[in-house]
Amino acid sequence: DVFGALRTPGEGAFIAGHRGDRSAAPENTMPAFELALASDMDFVETDVQLTSDHVPVLFHDVTLERTTNGRGKVSDKTSAQIKKLDAGRWYAREYAGTRIPTLDEFFTRLVDSDKKALVELKFSWSDDDLRNVIDLIGQHGLSSRVVLQSFSIETLLNLQRVSPQFPRIMLVRELPANPVPMAERFGVIALATTAKAVAAQPDAVTRLHEAGFGIICYTLNTEDTWAEVRQLGVDGIITDTPSDLDSWLAAT
Ligand code: G3P
Ligand code: CA
User: Fold this and answer.
1) Which residue of 12, 102, 214, 228 has the lowest C-beta tally within 10 Å?
2) Which of 105, 108, 6, 1 lies closest to 55 in space, CA to CA?
3) Locate the GP-PDE domain: which residues (predicted)?
4) Does the annotation mark 209 as catalytic?
């Protein structure tokens, strides 16, 4: 079952908390991950990018301004500079002093939970940097609990060469009528896209399933969109409001 790495046994659609539980704590920080790990969701989604000294850190935007007290690009800063930033005060006073986690710190915490992680590799990753991430996952004993995903074609192709067996998902903003050749070419286990993209190509879901691939949707935060993609047969939902989605799934 290609969904072995994705599905919670006995359940249908899985839920992933987007950047942790960003509806209740600053995104991509340990407080947001703690909430996600304490919830009923199956996966925690997070974004990874590299500092100038090639340390993988959890951060979404290209630049620091929106969610920290720093300025400029993450990729221009050393890991020591990144570690000095406040990534919580923008969200609420009680989170002042919250730091940007490294991927290593996130994995250290994930090991002591029963959750899996959807780790998005932001932008373009070299073979060496990908090897370091795969090694880090192995060192933490998390190979069966982490799925990598990316929008970057270069990153996906490099990953296929560096670690062809490692489960990965291709993020796309639109779906072709038949996405199977694309999924095959990149050797992914699933595609992830928007509800709008799936609604525009409803046959794509059947085609992917018949060929053994999954399809999941990001980032859906309303009951209407949850109902819509469930009807369309998607395998998983990434949401900013995981506890609301949990309650909705339980009630429907
Ligand atoms: O998991 C997919 C989703 O997170 C992609 O969009 O911009 O939130 O990383 P973004
Ligand atoms: Ca993401």
Assistant:
1) 12
2) 105
3) 13-249
4) no
CA distance 150 to 158: 11
CA angle 208, 212, 217 (to 5 degrees): 50
Q: How many alpha carbons lie under 13 Å from residue 54 in its C-beta half-sphere?
A: 9
Domains annotated for the chain, with CATH where assigned, are: 2-251 (3.20.20.190)
The residue to which tokens 């340990």 are assigned: 30
How, if at all, do strands 43-50 and 56-58 pair?
Answer: antiparallel
Q: Which residue has the tokens 């969109």?
A: 225
Cβ distance 77 to 65 under 8 Å?
no
Ligand 1 proximity of 218 Cβ (cutoff 6 Å): yes
Is 60 designated active site? yes
Tell me whether 0.95 is exceeded by the ipTM.
yes
Our mutation pick for probing the ligand 1 site, out of 14, 44, 45, counting the most ligand atoms within 8 A of Cβ, is: 45
Q: Is 235 in the pocket of ligand 1 (CB under 6 A)?
A: no
Helix (H, G, I), strand (E, B) or coil at 186: helix
